[in-house]
From TrEMBL, chains A, B:
InterPro entries: RibonucZ/Hydroxyglut_hydro, RNase_Z/BN. Keywords: Endonuclease, Hydrolase, Metal-binding, Nuclease, tRNA processing, Zinc. Pfam families: Anti-Pycsar_Apyc1 (PF23023). Zinc phosphodiesterase, which displays some tRNA 3'-processing endonuclease activity. Probably involved in tRNA maturation, by removing a 3'-trailer from precursor tRNA. Zn(2+) 2 binds at D64, H65, D210, H268. This is Ribonuclease Z. It comes from Flavobacterium jejuense. The keyword Transmembrane helix does not apply.
Length: 301, 301
């Protein structure tokens, strides 16, 4: 799993900072999370192939998380994309995008599917053999969801030495990976745990932005490997965090601690702060393992 | 008059090029013309004060001319703008912008006026004491207008030496500037042409993008000082210009020549061409005085 931060600053795009967007590479899929203005240029800058992005998850309809989406969809069209594109986001997103395409007389040559969300309970929005994605209902000024991305490693790993020792034919390998015991030609039953190793741990990544401090998300993100949690303000501006329904660095660290997250990635900094190290300093009074997101940063998860 | 090119490339924003947007400084006003994605960052980059932009002219609703508008309007809001903002553009633009603001639960603290256009005849869209702006109906795949910006220098210039010689009091200066003759205390009538000079020439700028080759605009732009005319393609791709309703370099030069323009500024280059000098070479076979637009270029008019 690899996370590439395309932008992680709040509010307005500037020459030196970009609004929220990130790419999660998980099980050879590229998931785009949020899409502020300028995201398509950031994707080009970081040499992320447009054709590898088939799923886009939008947290909420504030401009700094979503104004780059219509341009990206249009560019996909101009580049003669053929792959289906799936967009997950708040109810209303489909009409906003389609109205703009219609006004420009444009129609995508690829299939464009919108998965509109309106539940305030966590729900599965994507699932295939290798990955599952659930919403994390957040509390912000408008309807907002974070997303929990989780690997599915249900298959056990073959113990090559053991299967060779027992002379087991390759046609049984799938059965072993699925946890099955094997009966040899002489009738001996060989238990699965002699033929395979436990699956790799199922890693997980939770994206939580934008939100006020909210403990109701804890059961959903419990034990997550990496938690990205917004920290728009420092405690000195806690009153602004309250008023605008954002989180302080200390509050983000408290969520990470209470959720037993392994690592906290901080971001969505207000552009009023010149030095983002201050966020780390404040959060480390509560939680140790902290990474500061920054535009262009690649984080191995 | 000064023109700052924020972006002048067709279709998709890239790391090295920006979609259409330019700022015309005329009689101490800043007019923003078109607003592709990323325009607000380009404005910051070129240190153009947001508060000086009170009028935005949008040619048409293709993304590369307009997807940056909602973000700019939102940023004005976040920066607590107080001045009125006027947006001129095709019918439908108001709903597209307001729907997005509404979805984000945002309301501008400043007055936001939309002047929606639907006429296919040239019409005056802005006029004050110093500047007049008219539409230039263009022919493109969707409803499109260029804009003609013209100085109004109706006032004559005071001949200081002469008014001092005749001992004329300052309260008569406005009358002289407006062309009036003066009767001295001894009853002598002094003709205005002895007291003032002709006004400065009224300079003009025509913005024409996007359009197919279209001679019906000639009477509107006749004698214009500076003509910005799109030249998306070279003649080798004339079939694409036809198909997509754009113009070749040679065609743009032909329009400039037939309109008796003094200078032609070329832009809206397709990103397929590596070297924009080719546009100048092709156009100079028809018309001499050519400036190639390029992102960040400042052109004194």
């Amino acid at each position: 799993m690899k996370l590439t931060i395309l932008g992680c600053y709040a509010a307005t795009p500037r020459t030196i900072t970009n609004p929220t967007s990130q790419v999660l590479e998980i099980k050879n899929q590229m998931f785009l999370i949020d899409c502020g203005e300028g995201t398509q240029v950031q994707l080009r800058k970081h040499k992320i192939k447009f054709s590898r992005i088939n799923h886009i998850f939008i947290s909420h309809l504030h401009g700094d998380h979503f104004y780059g989406l219509v341009g990206l969809i249009s560019t996909f069209m101009l580049l003669n994309r053929v792959n289906d594109l799936h967009v997950y986001g708040p109810k209303g997103i489909k009409e906003l995008i389609l109205m703009q395409l219609k006004a420009s007389g444009s129609y995508t040559g690829y299939n464009l599917y919108f998965h509109e969300l309106e539940s305030t309970e966590s729900e599965i929005v994507f699932e295939d053999e290798k990955v599952i994605v659930k919403t994390i209902p957040l509390k912000h000024r408008i309807y907002t969801n974070g997303y929990l991305f989780k690997e599915k490693n249900s298959k056990r790993k073959l113990n090559i030495e053991a299967v060779e020792k027992y002379n087991i034919e390759t046609c049984y390998y799938q059965k072993i990976k699925s946890g099955g015991d094997i009966t040899l030609e002489d009738g001996t039953l060989v238990s699965n745990n002699l033929l395979s190793f436990n699956p790799e741990p199922e890693r997980s990544y939770a994206f939580c932005s934008d939100t006020v401090y909210n403990e109701t998300i804890l059961p959903i993100i419990e034990g997550v490997d990496t938690l990205y949690h917004e920290s728009t303000f420092l405690e000195t501006e806690a009153h602004l965090a309250d008023k605008t329904m954002h989180t302080t660095a200390k509050q983000a660290a408290t969520i990470a601690k209470k959720a037993n997250a392994k690592t906290l990635v901080m971001g969505h900094y207000s552009t009023r702060y010149g030095n983002i190290e201050l966020f780390k300093e404040e959060a480390q009074t509560i939680f140790d393992n902290i990474i500061l997101a920054d535009d262009g940063k690649e984080i191995k998860l």
